[in-house]
Structures are given as structure tokens and as C-alpha cells.
Write a structure and sequence with these properties.
Length: 450
Amino acid sequence: MLVEETADDSERRARSGRAADARSPPSGGTRVRVRLSHPVCCARQSTDVPRRQAVRDAREFGFHTRAAQSHLDGKKVDRPLSVPIVQSTTHQVASSREMGTLFRNRADIIYTRFGNPTNTAAEEKIAALEGAEAGLIFGSGMGAIVTALLTVLKGGDHVVAQRDIFAQTFTFLDRVARPLGVETTFVDATRPDEVRGALRPNTKLIYIESPSNPLLKIVDIAAIADLARPRGLPLFIDSTFASPYLQNPISLGATLVLHSATKFLGGHSDIQCGAAAGPRDLVRRIYEMRAVLGTIQDPHNAWLLLRGMKTLGVRVQRQCETALRLAQFLQGQPGVRAVHYPWLETSPYHALARRQMRAAGGVLSFDVQGGLPAARAFLDALELIPIATSLGGVETLIEIPAELDFNEDEMGAEVAKTGLTPALIRLSVGLEDVDDLLGDLKRGLAALSP
């Protein structure tokens, strides 16, 4: 979270050894100057180097460098390479006057519900990777989504939302926000004309997800942004399936990018976290709502998130390569009706995905013949791939979405309009050897044989 500093605050930061830094998005994204500061545990000037320091511009570096390095300011000081965990809920200050100043400026060294230095480092890293002015992290992906939505919506407002969004996001808009007076029209956002036709005078937000869960539909972000911008409407996008490595929606016109950082950003199936990145003024408003709702993140989880983001690019690149191999293999198999993966040339979203993404991601889905019983038989025949929900981790996971969120109990009649069937299987690809994964999928396919 970026906050304005007073002179007293700047002096305090100098005393505590906090360092300024800068980050910028992956190549192809908007270049935005971002201040990255975090505790460095008694950082001090090395006596072995000249005192004059040339601060580097982070925009000189590629995505992997910016993800891996904690410090890109070029300063020669003694400090830890890994951002320390500030595992404290409250902080001692020098005076009552300073406490008041810190509270008014929402500093991250007063009380953890308002901020924490470890959390700040993770937030600024996410903002930098997305090419945003500011970022926030939350206790979960739904914490990020709900907090952001409650920040911009009130009774009497109208939302145009993509129909096949994450099931709990659909549930919030349909069953929680609607009784509060916020009406949502769900549309096929892959058709910009359908989005345009749903707009009303009281529309206050357009909400999309790309790639979508679990059918991997791709929305033309720039085209939807062109509808939102002239009307002064914010465009929120859940970009979880892409991660900042594959897609930077702000450079395409989106207002706010949301992530379940539990997934690819964390990458190890050991934290639950949400993230938001966007313009400083909007992020500040979401920050205030987060403080009221308490949808905050724990500093230790923030450190694990920082650890995960260091390898984001290399992990996702391998996951994309393996996912494409598996999708190509499944596409020609008896018993498989359809494979959903945007990098396949047969995908209706292939050209658009190649235009706005760097690769298609580490998740694919496929329909099997024989309905839900056949899908269950496929999963039960596997020996290597665990049956488990979630995605984006180093382990390959498999699930049947209709057994979980994507069914009539959760989404009502709208689920039938998404094209999702009970026989759909979702596969989140990890880092295993591709031949081992292919061998396990063959076991599943054998279970489909009559």
C-alpha cells in the first residue's frame, strides 16, 4: 500500500533504515514508477564501497529479475536478501504525536489491520509486476473480490458481470449484493455487444474474468475497456488464471486487477491470499474498506507469498509448456469430447489469447463421454495426480467442477448458459515430468473404455 509521507514520517523511515526502490511491469505492459520499500533490519552503508550510489531504474530489468530480486535500487548496503517477517500486531512509537501522525497516514508500523512492513513489500511487488500504481493483499481471493466490490457499489447500483466467473463471485453478486439493492446482469462477456446491450444509466461497474474458470474462455479486455472508459465505468478483472507473468490487464485498459494469490502467485499450495492492483486513489479506498472489514493478510503468509513470487515466471512457463502438451494429447483421444485450452489452434479463443497473453496458462479442462459417472471413473483410476481442488501450485491437481461450485445449487439456471457440463474435468498442471503425467492420464482414459 502506498501512503503519503509527512516530514516526520520520512525522518522515521530514515532512522529505521527503510529503503526506496522501483518496479515496473513485464515487457509489453505500461511502464509505471512504483516505490518499493520494506524493512531491511538494520541496513547500513558498506565501508568497502564508495558512498555515492547510482539508483537503478527497475524498468531496465526483465520480469524474472524483478520477480526474483528483493532490491533493485543499486544501493550498496548491508541488508537481508529475503524480506524479514515482521510478526507483530502492534509497534512502539517515539511519541504520542507521532502515533497520531502514523495513524492518520495509515502507516504500516502502527497496527497490522492497517498494514505491516512485510505485507507492504508483497503489495508493492504485486503492483510492480502488474504495472499498477498500488496494490493490496488480503486473507483470501474472495476477501480481495468482496472488499473491492463493496468499495464501489451501493444500493441502487447496477453491475454488468461475466456469466462464467468464479462461482463464489457469482454467489456474492447474486445472493449477497442483490438483497442489498445491487442488481447484476450476467452476460457472455466474450461478446462485447452483449456487454454493451446490458449497460444501464445506473450501471456502476463491469466485472470480467479472463481466462475464465473452468472453461478457459478469453475475454477481449481492450474491447470491454473501450465500452467502459467513455462511460466512466471501472472495469474489474479477475486475472487469477493468467498471473502477471502471462497477462497485464491494466495495459489493456482495465481499472483493477484481482487475483486469488493462493494460486499461481503463491504457487506452493501452502497459503491462502488475495491481491488487488490498480490506481492509487481506488486502491486507497479499497484499503479503507479492508481495514473496516478486517480482510487482512498475516505477515508470515505475506512472506510466503513473496517467496512464491520469486519463481513465478519460471514456474508458470513450465506449467504452460506441459499444459499444452497434455491438451494436445487429450484432444485426439477416444472418449474425450472436447478440450478447452486457448493455445490449441482449434480453440475459438486462440487468436485473441495470442494477442493479449504470453501463453495460455497452467490450467486446462476437458469433457469426457459418458457424463458424470465417466468423469468420476476417470479421476478414480489415476495413481499419480491427486484429486484435490485449487490450482496454480507445483503439484498437478484434478477435479470435477460440477461436484464443487459449478452446479445448479450454487449458480442456479445460469450454470446451463455457461456451457459447463457434469462431465467436465479441470486439470491444474504442476511441475512434474510430462511423461509421468501422460502415463497417469492414460490410466484415466482406459477407465472410459466400454
